[in-house]
Write a structure and sequence with these properties.
The chain contains five helices and 14 strands. The strands form four sheets. An eight-stranded mixed β-sheet has the order 5-4-1-6-9-10-12-13, with helices on both faces. A two-stranded antiparallel sheet has the order 2-3. A two-stranded antiparallel sheet has the order 7-8. Bound molecules: cytidine-5'-monophosphate. It comes from Flagellimonas spongiicola.
């Protein structure tokens, strides 16, 4: 493994959706497949890193000597797992689609249906990436942004607010980009506002591009 660009580096990656319980059998979730995060983990491991992959509920699996996969369910569990490892981490990438809101009260028993409408009260769930940005020492911290308008501006705003070193923007306007699919079209933006736009590619190719951008910057 001598000479690999990420040897002796510890990498933290979040992937997939989170599920927020309503009662013992119901949850709020989203359609994230986890593919982008798993591809980023695989690429980092093949480049020599020790990878801590924190994954929400997904059908994906990965077995690799350099990858420690930890499965979680809720945003709170993902938050706790990330903070458990963060001190020893060199590069962290938040690729998970974390639920922004969760039910304020979780019913202990399965909720019975009643006549009429039901209103669920939701509260904000923890912003994992924001909390890592606040805690950051020497870690290189990367976030994702899915924007539908003022994409560059919003992504840059997110980068600053969450104290990131770089952000990966995927535009929903681009066919084949983003959630669930096999391909993605990204723009990589660093904290110095250096911007690089890539062509539509498969997610393994996108993972490779993202790592190339990160490696240039951590070795500079
Ligand atoms: O603010 P927004 O949710 O658009 O930011 C997206 C980025 O923040 C992604 O990298 C996502 O993984 C991360 N995030 C997080 N915890 C949340 C919400 C978003 O880590 N609760």
């Amino acid at each position: 493994k001598q000479g690999l660009p990420l040897q002796n580096k510890n990498v933290l990656i979040t992937a997939g959706p989170t599920q927020e319980a309503i009662d013992p059998v119901r949850f709020l979730g989203n359609r994230s497949s986890g593919t982008m995060g798993f591809e980023l983990a695989k690429r980092a491991a093949n480049l020599g890193a020790k990878v801590f992959l924190i994954a929400g509920p997904t059908n994906l699996d990965i077995v690799h000597e350099n990858i420690q996969l930890e499965r979680v369910t809720s945003a709170q569990e993902m938050y706790d797992a990330c903070h458990k490892y963060f001190d020893q981490i060199d590069v962290a990438i938040a690729a998970a689609a974390v639920a922004d809101y969760r039910p304020k009260h979780v019913a202990k028993e399965k909720m019975k249906k009643k006549a009429g409408d039901l209103t669920l009260e939701l509260e904000r769930s923890p912003d994992i990436l924001l909390s890592l940005g606040k805690r950051k020492q020497n870690q290189f911290l990367v976030g994702f942004a899915l924007e539908t308008e003022n994409e560059l501006e919003n992504a840059k705003g997110k980068l600053e607010r969450k104290h990131l070193d770089a952000i990966v923007l995927n535009s929903l306007k681009d066919d084949g980009a983003g959630f669930g699919g096999a391909t993605n079209k990204i723009t990589f933006i660093d904290k110095n506002s250096q911007i690089k736009t890539f062509a539509l590619k498969t997610k393994p190719e996108v993972a490779s591009d993202i790592w190339e951008e990160i490696i240039t910057r951590i070795h500079a």
